[in-house]
Structures are given as structure tokens and as C-alpha cells.
């Protein structure tokens, strides 16, 4: 079984702010750092650190070469990352407040220049029984899901960020949803209670398993045979950016490794807990050994 992530690669410009800037306000930040990021990149790195063999497909400009290098250094297969000469890599402007909460503004750049033909090419080496991981930070996610399913691949979706483009994705094709409450509410027609979100998604998409993350309230799993809950690990939040991505990569690795949903939630929650205690997106993602030690010492 091979795993492919067709996902975004971003340059994150991270500003420390006393509070999130509001309409009409001019606000001075107290610090600026540049980090590798992008939901796609973060999730590939988390999955690889968790022990999964994964290939990342995507598009960067010449300014994004360091993103591909980081993926490669983290053990991700980067043979399907294309460089568009003269184009700008995607970037994110991220505000971090004193509580470690974030506010993200995206510029898609080359992430939004992935064509259906690119996607066909990315999927060429993959087939029945393989897995496609998708988020909503690249162009044509609906084409990617459809073509992957036509090849007999299982499709895993983190529907983030929520945007009207998600309507292009045939959600009946999804085997595993990994989503937070905001995304869960959007996909379940406005349900706000966690149990109602799970109930709605599992009855609408009976083939799918669903993992719902609830921040400090932990996470929930619902499949055909069981429901599982896992508490969050209490940590001092420095920067919550990529906590969800870390969770997704770690849970996916456990899921594909045949671990139980309970084991998967625990592994992913511990990894996400460590990630929020550190600054940055990709640099905050812990190694598998750190996560295992954290679980032993808790
Ligand atoms: O999920 C966090 C990520 O969202 C950041 O790295 C940023 O690039 C945006 O894609």
C-alpha cells in the first residue's frame, strides 16, 4: 500500500501580536518569524515522523525550494513536487496572540495552479488499495478525489479550510474524515454539538469513518462498529498552528498501521499536544520517539 498526499506547501510569515488586528486598526507586531507550513506539507511531515511512508505531490515556485528540502529531510518522498518557474509559492500571514491562538490569511500562489492534468500525472504511479490524503488548500480537490477513487484508491479528507470549493468534492468517495468542530458543522448542515455532527456525517456517508477534534476538549472517533473518545493532554499553548495537521498525520499513520481507533486518537492527541507547546507549524511537529516518551511519562 502506497500513500500520496496532494497538498499545499506554504511559506508561513508568523507575527506575534497583542491581539488579532480588527477592521480599520493598524497594529504593531512584536516579532516576525518565517516558518515552513501549509496544511499539506505539515500533514506529510507529521505522517512521516509518525512512521508512515508517504509521497507528497504539489507545486512550488523557486522561492519554495526550502519547503521541498524540508519534506525530503523529514523522510517524505518529494519526487512529485513540481516547480513553476517565475511563480510565487503559496504563503500564509499568521497572527499569534498571547494565548497562542492563531488567525491565518492565505495566499494560494502555486498551490492554486495545480491543474487536472497535473493531478492525473501525480496519480499515475498509484492504484487499487493505495491511499490519497487531501485537504482544501490546492486547486481541484474534487478532481483529485474522483480520479483517485476511479483508480481504486481510498480517499482521506481533512476538509480544511472550509470554502465553497469543497462542494466540488464528492463526499461519498471519502473513507476517513478528519475534521474539527467548525468543519464538522459546515459538512453536517450546521450541527454544533459533537455527537450530532458525528451522527449526521456517519448517516450521510455510511462508508466513512469520522474523527472529530475538539481542541482542549479532546477528540472523538465514530466508525461502523464503535465510538471512541479521547481527552486532550493539558499543555501550555505557545502556538496552536498545525496542531490539527499534526493530529491528522499521526492518526493517519496509526490507522493505516492497523492500530485501534483508541490507540490512534491517543497517539495523535499526544503529538498535537506537543506541537501546540512549540512555535511554528512544521517545526513544531514532534518525532515519533518524543510522542512515545510523552505517553509513557504522562
Ligand atoms: O494548518 C496550519 C497551516 O495553515 C499553516 O502552516 C498555514 O500555512 C496554513 O496553511
List keywords for this structure.
298 residues; four-stranded mixed beta sheet; globular; binds alpha-D-ribofuranose
Architecture overview:
The protein is α/β, with parallel strands linked by helices. Helix content is 33%, strand content 24%. The strands form two sheets. Strands 5-4-1-8-9-10-11-12-13 form a nine-stranded mixed beta sheet, sandwiched between helices. Strands 3-2-6-7 form a four-stranded mixed beta sheet. A hairpin with a 4-residue loop joins strand 12 and strand 13. Helix 1 (39-50) crosses helix 7 (243-256) and helix 7 packs antiparallel against helix 8 (261-276). It is globular. The two termini are 33 Å apart. It binds alpha-D-ribofuranose (RIB). Alpha-D-ribofuranose is lined by residues 8, 10, 12, 37-39, 42, 92, 104, 137, 241-242, 244-245, 281. Residues 8, 10, 12, 37-39, 42, 92, 104, 137, 241-242, 244-245, 281 line the site of alpha-D-ribofuranose (RIB).
